[in-house]
Amino acid sequence: AERLAQPGHRDRRSCWSAGHCWVFLPLPRPRSGRACREGARSRFHDGFIAASKPYVRLAIVKPMIHHVQLACPRGSEAASRAFYSGVLGLAEKPKPPALAARGGCWFTGGEIELHLGVEDDFRPARKAHPGLLWPDLDALAERLTAAGYPVVWGNDELPGMRRFHTEDAHGNRLEFLAPL
Predict the structure, then answer these.
(1) Checking phi first, is residue 38 left (phi over 0); if not, alpha (psi -120 to 50) or beta?
(2) Which residue of 32, 122, 126, 140 lies most exposed, with the fewest beta carbons within 10 A?
(3) Cβ–Cβ under 8 Å, residues 69 and 106
(4) Alpha helices, DSSP H only, in 74-126?
(5) Which residues contact residue 159 at a Cβ distance below 8 angstroms, ignoring those fewer than 6 apart?
(6) What does each of the 180 residues of the chain score in pLDDT, given as a tens digit?
(7) What distances in angstroms separate CA 106 from CA 114, 118, 142, 174, one per listed residue?
């Protein structure tokens, strides 16, 4: 709800220039049948329809990242859950049934959506990494350290940002940042 169009910025162009990522667009009202009973659905699959406004969809007016995928070894979902839900506090998001059979798991929290996908010849990402903005770096660093994960603080290479790197349960590199 934080990124919905503000009053006075109702069209795509003004939403773009105002820095917003979404805008409400009306959907045609269904006249009868199943769509009428359940509310119209857009082509967007999860959470982009306001439950109280079944005839409204959100249009993306600015490029943005939907999710980041990291790899994990087959059968390691419990370790993924322990790290991403247990340590980071992200909520697990159910995978669509067609994708659930492949293994792995998805997590979400705030503006973050991370997908852990199974790779049979898994090798952790040691250099490539997502950079995640986090509200309280010190508290997160304490939780990671207490759980036995490394925390390597960065120096002043990024002006105006505090940051550190860690590894997830599979050895994938992660960066956490916060503005000074």
Answers:
(1) alpha
(2) 32
(3) no
(4) 77-81, 97-100
(5) none
(6) 334 444 444 454 554 455 555 555 555 555 555 544 444 444 333 344 444 445 555 666 778 899 999 999 999 999 999 999 999 999 999 999 999 999 999 999 999 999 999 999 999 999 999 999 999 999 999 999 999 999 999 987 889 999 999 999 999 999 999 999
(7) 6, 11, 24, 16
Helix (H, G, I), strand (E, B) or coil at 56: strand
> What is the DSSP secondary structure assignment for residue 114, as one 8-state letter?
E
> What letter would DSSP give residue 63?
-
The count of other CB atoms within 10 Å of the CB of residue 72 is: 26
Domain ranges of the chain: 12-60, 68-179
Question: CB–CB of 57/51 below 8 Å?
Answer: no
Rounded Cα distance, 113 and 107, in Å: 6
Which residue type, as a one-letter code, is found at position 65? I
CATH for 68-179, options being 3.10.180.10, 3.40.50.1820, 3.90.550.10, 2.40.110.10: 3.10.180.10
Q: Which two tokens stand for residue 19?
A: 């820095």
Residue with tokens 């991403």: 84
* pLDDT tens-digit readout, 4-49: 444 444 454 554 455 555 555 555 555 555 544 444 444 333 344 4
What residues have CB less than 8 Å from 91, skipping those under 6 apart? 85, 107, 108, 109
